[in-house]
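EI: anyone free to look at a 90-residue chain?
SC: sure, send it
EI:
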Amino acid sequence: MTELHMTVFGKVQGVWFRAWTRDTAREMGVTGWVRNLPDGNVEALAQGNEELLARFMERLYDGPPLARVTKIDSSKHDVKTEFSSFEVTR
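SC: here you go
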């Protein structure tokens, strides 16, 4: 299992991006969390196998209808704390 830490840039706050991300992650079987950042971007930590995480990140580029993702910075890490679900955090 791998952990993927992402910062999502673009129009991603106030457009249901976090809820959409949570629902998409749960549908795909990805665990972790997503939260808004003070600078207007969104941060997410996702856990799963590498192929699943690659597909999940590609889905984030689509986002909900009102979102416009311009860039995603990501880094892979070994899992330190395993999550059992995917949640929106503050």
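EI: Residues 24 and 75 are 20 Å apart (CA to CA).
SC: 👍
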